Every structure is written in C-alpha cells, then in structure tokens.
Amino acid sequence: MPGGPGRGGSCPLGALSPAIGDLSELSSLVFRHSCLAGELPDSVTRLQKLTVLDMRDNSFSGSIPPGLFRLPALRHLHLSANGGGLSGSLPEGPGAYSTSLETVDLAGNALSGELPRTLFRAPALRWADLQSNNLTGELPGQAEAGGAGAYSASLVALILRNNSLSGGLPTELAEMTRLKMLDLGGNRLSGAVPQALGALLPAVLDVVRLDGNALTGPLCHALLPARDLALGFNPHLGGDSGEGGKGSLHGCVLPAKLEELSAPHAGLWGSVPPDLFLAVDPQTGRRPAMGGLGKVIELNFSRNSLSGSLSAFSVLPSGTLDLSYNNFTGGIPEAFFSFDRRVDVRFNALSGPLYDARRRKFEDRRFEKGTDVWDYLRVSNNSAAIARAVGAGYLPAPSPGVQASAAETAVLLAVRDALLGGPAEAAEGVDGGALADGGNSSWAALLSGWGVGTSSACAWYGVGCTADGHVDTLHLLGDETVTLHAPFVPDSPECEDVYGEKICAHDPPPPPPPVRFFLQGLPGRKSTGSLSTALGQLTRLTSLRISHHTLSSSLPASLSLLSHLVSLDLSSNRLLSGAVPPTLYTLPELRELTLRGNNLTGDALPSSGAAALSPSLESLDVGGDQLSGSIGSSIGALTSLTRLALDHNRLQGSLPGQLCALWMLRDLQLQGNALQGDLSALAAATSGSSSRMWGLGGVFPLLTLLDVSSNQLSGDAAVLAPIGSQFSYLNASHNHLTCSPGSALWTAWHVDLSHNRISAALDDLVSFPDSFAYVLRLAHNQISGPIPASLLRHTVSEELDLSHNLLSGTIPQIVNYYSMTTLDLSYNQLSGAIPDIDGSLRRCDFSHNQLTGGVPQVPPALEHLNASWNQLTKISSSPFRSAEHLESLDISHNAFSGVLPALGVEPRLTRLTYLDLSFNAFNGSVSQQHFPLPAAAAGACKTVPHGAEVRLSHNALTGNISGSVFSPCLALLDLSHNHLSGAIPPPPQQSDQSPSLLPLSHLDLSSNKLTGSISTALVASFPALNRLDVSNNLLSGSLPPSLALAPALTHLDLSRNKLKGSLPALCQGQQRLATLLLSSNAFSGSVSSLLSSCAPCTSSLLSLNISSNQLSGPLPASLSRFTALQSLVAARNRMIGSIPAGVASLKALQALDLSWNGLSGAIPALLRAAAPSLHVQLAGNALSGSVPKPLSDLPLSCFRPGNPKLCGTPLPACKTSKPRKGGW
Fold first, then answer.
1. Could you give the strand order of the β-sheet that contains 674-678, starting from the edge strand earlier in sequence?
2. Which residue, of 216, 248, 487, 1051, is most buried by count of CB atoms within 10 Å of its CB?
3. Rg for the chain (alpha carbons), in Å?
4. Considering Cα of 529, then 533, then 537, then 543, what sign does the dihedral take?
C-alpha cells in the first residue's frame, strides 16, 4: 500500500466526494492510509446506518462535522494521524455524542478548545484516544445534575497525552470501573494526587501514565495500583518531606502487581528505604520476611536526588534498573554484576572496589555473549576510587604459586628494559608481587619491581600465567581512559489487541544514555621507551595490553608470532609509528585489535591480495592515527566485526561495497576523514532497488552507533534512518548530504545532521510518533517551512538545534513533557511573538529572526536567553520575576524603547553575569539599579569566576554616569554610542578589597558627551584593565602618569577628544600594548620621545595612530624595531626630517600614513619591497627624488598635493641633466 503523507510517505492526494452521503445503506466506511486530503464532507452525517468510520493516516484538514458524532448507529470512529490537519473544537453539551459510540480515536491532529466533558459520559464508550492535540481545560470532576457521573463506567482506555490540560486529578476517575489504561502524560496537570484515588481505582487497571506534568508530592499517593506506572518528569513529585524527613520514598508501598515503574526527573530525594520493595501481604497487611522486587521488570529512578547506599537493592528487577544521575554513595553490590539484567548507576558518588571475581567472570564471558560487559553494568562518572578499581579490574590476577620458565622470565625483563628505555635499576623497597593501588607508585618503580627478590614472574605487576607457568596475560596500563559501555537500545513498546486490532502504547523512552563515558584512572604510570621484539617469544599470550604511554618505536613484526592472541591493545601511545604489520590481521584467534591514538601510517587494512584476514576479529579500532589511502575491499573478510573504528585518520575514497558484508556491526565510526561517495549507493549494494526502504538499517540490522561526520559524503540522508532502525547515536554532520521530501530522518536517540545540504521542508522530515530523539541537530542546512508543534512537544526531549536554516512562520507553543533543556532556533526567518518558554528549558536562542512583540516570562530553570537581532518592541511586566537561574540575557539589536529597565531591583535575578541591551532605543540614566550583579561584599564575586559583562551601547541613554556602575564583579562595561555627559566617575571606595573580587578589564565609554579629565583614580582602581576606549568625547586635560603603569593594558583609544600636553611613558609598566590610538587631540612633544617610551612594546604593538596632534621632530631610526607593527598613522603633525630607511624592513606593515607633515629627503628605495600590500600615504610633505619602483603602482593621490620635488611614476618623469654643447 502506498505511504500516506501522514506517515512521511508520498502519493497522489485525492478527496472524499460529497456523494458519499448518498450511500444510505452504508454501514462501514474505511479509507485508512489512502492518501486522501481536503475536508471531511458534511454529507457523511447523512449515513444513518454507519457503524464504522476509519479515516486514519490521511491528510484531512478543517474541522470535523459535529453531526458525525451524533450518528445513531456509529460505534467506532477513527480519524487519528491526519498530519495535524484536523482542527477546530469538539462538540459539547447534551446529545452531542451518540449513545452507541464505543471508540473515539482522534489522536495526532490539531484539535483545540476545551476538553469535551460530555464525550466521556457516552454510556457505551470504551476507548477514547485524544492524545497529541491542543485541547485545554480540566479533567471532568463533578457529577452532572440528576446524578449522572463524570465518566462512563464502560471506559477501558482513556488517553489524553500531549495536550495542554490543566488542573488536578479528580477522584471521579475511579468511576471508570473497567479502566485498564489511563494516559494523562505530557500535559500541565498540577497539584497532588488525591490520597484516596489509589484505593478507588479498579483492580483491572493495568497502565497509568502521569509523566510530563507538574504534579506535586507526596510521592506515595501517586503509586497507583497498576502494572505499568509512569511518573517521570514531574520535577516536584518527590515533595519536600517524607516519613520522618528521610526522603520521598519512605512510607511508600509499591503496588502488588507492579512490573514497570518509571520515575526519572521526579524530584525524588533522600535514601531508599530497605523495605520499599517488600510487597505487602493483602491478607495480613504486613511485609514478608523475604525481600525482593517480585515481578518487577523495570525500575527507573534516574535524574533525581536520591542518596545513601545501594543496599536496598539487594534483589534487583529482572530487566532494567536505572539509578543514574543521583547522589548514591558507597560500593556497588555484587548482585549488580549479572548478564541477566541491565543496571545503570552512572553519575553518582559511588566508590570502593568493584566485585573483582564477578568482574573477571564478565570478562571471561565477553566474547561468548557476543557483546560487551558494560552493556549490562554502567558505572562511569563516579568517584576517583571507583575509577581506580575499574583500572585494577583490567589487571590480571596474580599467580604467586606458579613458577614461570627462565626463558619467559628473561623475555619479560627484556620487555621491561625496552619500556623503560634501558636496563632498570632495582627499586629499593618495591615488592615485585605487589599490585599498585592507582595511587602514588610511579611507573618506573612498578616495573623495576620485576625481578626483585625470589618471587616468580607470574606474581609480577601486570603479569598473568596459566596453571603450567606460561605467561598468557600482560597488562601494563598508563593513564588510562576506559570505555565503559556501548549504547543501550530499549525494547519495543508493548502492544495489545483491542477490538480486533493491534494497539501499541508508546512509552516515553528512558532518559538518554550518552553513547560513551570515560574514566580517568591509574595515574602516574607513564613509559617513554619502546616495544621489544622479544614479545613474540611469549607464544602463549592471549591478552596483551600496553596502552597510554609515550612509546616511540614501531610495531614489532614479531607480534605476528602470537598465534593464541585474543586481545591486543596498544592504544594511546602517541609516538608509536610506522605501518601496521599486515600479518597482525591474520592471527587466527584475534578478536580485539585496538591501536587507537598513535602515530601509525600506511593503509588501514592490508590489500585484498594479502593473506586472508582472520574472520574471528570482532573489534577493530585504529582511530586517531595517521592512516591514509582508502578502505579496501579486504574489509569484507572481517565478517565477525561488531565494532569498527577508523575515525580521525586521513582516509579517502568511497565506502567499498564489501563493507555491507559486516552485518553484525553494532558500532561504526568513520568520522574525521575525507571519505567521499554516495551513501545511497552503499545501501543499494545489498538492497538493490529497495535501498530507500531498507537503507543502512537493512545493511547493518544490529547497528546502534553510526558516526560518519566530518567527511565529504553525499546522497540521501534518509538511508541513515530506515524503517526498523535501532540507532542510539547517529552523527552524519559536516558532509554533503541531501534529503528527499517525505522521509522521516531518524529513529535514533542522538541525531546530528547539521552542516549538510538538506533542503526539504521541516514537516517533511519529521513524523511523530515514528520519530523520536533526545538530541536532534539539523543546524546549517537549508530546511524551510514552519516548525511542527509536535517537534517541540514530543519528538525531541533534551536538545533541539534548528539554527542557520530557512524556517518561517511562527514558533509553536513550547511545552515539552520530556523536559527539553536546549532549544536553538537562531538564524532563520521566523516571525510572530516568542511563545511562553517551557519550564524545563535552560538554553533558548531565538536570535537573528523576524520576531516581534516582547520578552516572554522567563521560567526559573532558564539559564541563557538570546533574542537578539529581531524586531522586539516591549518588555512585559516583570518578565524576570522568577528568573532565579538566569545567567545570560541578550536582547540586543531590537526595537526596544522607553526607560532602561531596572533589572537590578529584581529580587531573584541574582545570577545574571551577561547582559546585552545594546543597539536599541532605551533612554534615561544608568546606575547600579540597572545591573543585576552581586552586591559589593566580601566573596560576592566568587559566583562570577570570569566576571560579569554589561553591554548597553548604541542606545539613547542620558545623564551622568554613577560610580556605582563599577561593581567589583564587573569585567566588561560598554556604554558607548549614547548621550551620556559629565565626568567619568571613579569607582566607589570599597570597605573590603578582597582579592576574590575580579576588577574591570574592558571599559568602553566612547562616542558620548563626557567631559573632564581622565583621573588617576580611574586607572589605579582597575589593575586588570586591558581595554580602555574613551574616544569621541569632550575629555580635556593631560593624561595621568599612572596610565603608563597599567600592567594589563593592550588596547588604549583616546582619539577625538581635547586632550593635551606631553604623553607619559605608556609602555613602561607592561610590554603587551597592541593598539594605541591618540588621534585628533592636542598632544605635544617629540615623536622620538613617544617611540622611545614605547620601546618595551616593540614586539606587541600592532597599531599606532597619532594623527592630527602637535607632535614634532623627526621619525627616529628606532621605528624599525617595532617588528609587529601593522599600521602607523602619523598624519597632520609637525614632523620634520627624512623617512628612516629602516621602515622598509617592517614586513608586517600594511598601512603607513605620514601625510601632511614637513618630511623631506628621498623615499627609502626598498619601501614596500618587503611588504607588497603596504598602503602608503605621503601627500602634503616636501619629499624629493624619484618614487621607488615598488611604489610606482600607487595612485597619484598618495603623493599629491605637496612634494613638488618628487618625480617618477605615477608622477611626471624625472628630468635628466644634459651635457653642454662642446663639453662641460
């Protein structure tokens, strides 16, 4: 059947004829997924015998005829998934709905208005699905006059997810005595769950989903009697007190039939009581003596503030336990190490050793299971103690009772000497059999312990032996970074049979697992030697790991003699160079080869003519090297590969078709190369003409991670996300991909297709609910059209970046029940007002659009708001009254006017460290009340480690500047291009000059009407000042001598004022001055003295402008010492003398203006020879002689007027003297 537009497919669109109403005997009308569009004709309301109407998955638009709901025989009505086209409100009132209605399915449209209360009282109604619309209002909660209930007792499923419903949960929900599914997620429901509701709900209740609302605690009331219970993304559900103040979970009882409990980001806090998972016996009312989670399959408490130990989880769910992003402490229980379930405890404060025996069992079963151990236990990003324990887990168990042979002992000593760069001296006091604890022992001491005393080599650090004394393991790890887990793919959503068809309840996916986390462990174990060729004599080696050192040798060819080798890891040795011996790939038992992070060169794989590659290889990682050439056809021989990483090399060419033979791949990383070719062609290599349908998902059915970013790949991006794909991480950014309209782009959790050439409309690229992502980045493409409302509400849960595209229309309401944190819509063509910002967002960027209206209310969680470069005109009443976490606010380049808002008086706006209101039309004076910065108290600026920035330039501010604006936390203040007047005030005296207060480093007061002088106090108060611009004012007087001692000054602009007097020694206090602009003043003195005072800045000074002053004297020869100088403008002074020849040696010089002085003599012959692009202006002087050839292409205006004795191109030719007739 052709794909309908509602599902991202494309087919000719037809319409439903009004003549359909003439079929008076029609009882069933089904046009499901039939490419129909237009409005539903009113004539369907004449079909009095109609019992089934099914128009799902089409493109109908307009409103639903109200009479349709009143058809007397209608039992099943399906109008869902019409591409959001059906709109308008639903009918309300007595008689609005037929008493025969059993199914009302209107999901995935754009219906609006109040929730129809009378619908839910239809006596025969069993299934009501209105999810993913724009319905508002509250849930029915009051009985009708005359005794009618609020809900029909026949209801089996009530699904209102993803609307804008508000209010609380009424106890009248219990009137649905047959209810099995209650889904109210993704709304704005608030308040506590009524305590009595749990006891009133029917025993048949199976699924309850209240996630993505604003429900409050106590949590125990929300543990309703269901098998599947979703409570996540209610940030305050944990309440502020539990039983005895111990935490949210104390005093709670889990439902007896519970199998799945999802409560991420629910505000849970405190410890987990040890009896929480002990089910209550319904007969005795007591908890049994035996613990456990009974039938629980999945438990998700991630992203909360739970603390304490993990002892309460002595018996685990049979499927998944997610406790990540909490504050748990202590060790990891033994029960967590199992292949029977998945456990995630990332991002806690766990410590102590891992359970070593079970850990080694994991390693033994790793290849047997065909997966990585860390798919089942994820422990990254905990304390340093657990990091060391993980590193120690990679060390072989010592075998002190086993004696190694003398030959293999000698080989190990040779290996040691090579690693240490020479024979090692015995380290006094080091026990050769002792394992390091990851603490203070140095690498040299650890290896020097080899051979000390009488201990066997089998007991040395990093050495493992077989029972008969052969070395089978050698693990010598440096500062290691351990990859702990691969991406986790969730199971398919649960489905059930309802009315003869398969209905799936789409659970909100669990919180996004980052693709990989790293542990930093084993510090202080660095080697700077080489790999010994003697390694090839350890013929019984099965595992060799020498990683994270600075080995400078090549790979010994003798490694190819290790025929029993299963795992070889020589990663991150930095200086390990040369080619990879081709025979390494032929080792018959090799399953893991890791050579990442070295300086290896040559081909990534042997050519197809070499010896056969080992089909046993399961993981190949040669990323981060200097490998070149193409990915050869020999790759097809590695049919057991589950992980292939060739990233960050210098590979070129197209992807070979033989890559398609690697159907077991789960992790494919090719990013950071120069690969070319069409991805669609790769998919077609196995799929034939159906490549568009199956794509790379058909080629690699097990793939969960794909990264081909930063290459030159082309083709249709749709092949990256085919039907059935289970990608967890998809990154194809920075390529040349396009995308055909009508194709959903992804089904992955993390999607990055930014910096490509995708030019379709956005609503052709996304299709909810088929598409879902935690992170979606489509920036820097040519995507057009409006933003679908579903994209902001359901499709993306954490980060959405659509910046730098061609999007138009208005921004839909920003309500995301998954708690999106980052939204970037900048650099588009969006118009209309900025909608209310969802309470979970932390970063919003609406800049560089055509938005109008005002600044919306800022929610408490928002940290960064950028609405610059728009057409905003007003700031609503107190939009920042709740902005307690706002750190940066940029609304510059808009059309705001009126008095400058007094943000400094907002009581909760205490974290703002970046404020940009520039390029508007704000007026009024400026003082501390306009800067919401911490008070000038001891330690106040510790919360602003880099200093605050305030930019108010290009407005219409007037009046004097108050000294209170110089907050001790201020690092940058820009008040330029206003109408400010009066003197520049010194900062107020501080009672506490704590060194933690960060002084001002950038001050720009240019283009105002400031008067008075530059005071000594102003300069002395800011020892960190590196940029001072007071140009284009009315300042007068002389410069304070303290200006010469400003230690950090790099940019000084005093131009266009009325300053006078001689110049102080401006470079005496520091040697970093890069820009010195003094033009259009009345400074006097000699140019020679000025340049002499700048002598310490000869290597830093880039630009010097002293034009239009009263400086005199000749240009000194020392000018040639300013080797970094790029611009010298000294026009309109009183300089005399000649131009020093050394000026021609300034190779960096790009502009030289010495016009309108009294310079004389010849122009240096080599001027402009060392700097061909140098622009020279010498008019208005008395220079003589011929114009040097390097200057002959300059225009006449560079020499005239003035210089009457100057000749040669572009001036008139020089006259030559002719001898007199008859001799001299």
1. 628-630, 650-654, 674-678, 712-716, 736-738
2. 248
3. 38
4. positive
The token pair that represents 610 in the structure block:
């070499």
Cα–Cα distance measured from residue 52 to residue 649, given in angstroms and rounded to the nearest whole number: 61
Residue 330 confidence (pLDDT) above 90: no
- Please give the model's pTM, rounded to 2 decimal places: 0.71
Using DSSP, state whether 683 is helix, strand or coil. helix
Confidence of residue 818 (pLDDT cuts 50, 70, 90): low
CA distance to 16, 485, 536, 604, per residue, from 645 (Å): 53, 15, 26, 10
How many whole angstroms separate alpha carbon 288 and alpha carbon 284? Answer: 9
Helices (H) and strands (E) in the chain, counts: 11, 84
3-state DSSP of 35-56: CEEEECCHHHHHCCCCCEEECC
Mean pLDDT, residues 414-427 = 70
Residue 427: per-residue pLDDT: 37
Would you tell me how many other CB atoms lie within 10 Å of the CB of residue 196? 11
- The residue whose two tokens read 């499923």 is 157
Q: Classify the phi-psi angles of 1098: left when phi > 0, otherwise alpha if psi is within -120 to 50, otherwise beta.
A: alpha
Residue with tokens 């969006």: 830
Please state, in angstroms and rounded to a whole number, the distance separating the CA atoms of residues 633 and 650.
17
Compute the CA torsion angle 325, 328, 333, 338 (nearest 10 deg). Answer: -10
**Cβ pair 895, 929 in contact under 8 A:** no
Quote the pLDDT of residue 694: 52
Beta bridge partners of 983: 1011
pLDDT over threshold 50, residue 366: no
CA count, 13 A, side-chain hemisphere, 235: 11
Q: At what angle do helices 679-687 and 691-699 cross, to 10 degrees?
A: 90
Rounded distance, CA 840 to CA 155, Å? 33
**Sheet of 1036-1037, strands arranged across:** 1036-1037, 1058-1062, 1082-1086, 1110-1114, 1134-1137, 1158-1161, 1182-1186, 1205-1207
DSSP symbols for 258-324: --EEE-TTS--EEEPPTTTTSPPPTTT-S--SS-S-TT--EEE--SSEEEE-SGGGSS--SSEEE--
List CB contacts of 707: < 8 A, sequence separation 6 or more.
647, 668, 669, 670, 671, 729, 730, 731, 732
For residue 244, what pLDDT is reported?
52
Element spanning 628, H or E: strand 628-630
Which is it for strands 36-39 and 14-15: parallel, antiparallel or unpaired?
parallel
| pLDDT of 526 higher than 60 | no
Would you state the structure tokens that stand for residue 762, as one six-digit string?
């956005």
- pLDDT of 402 reads 81
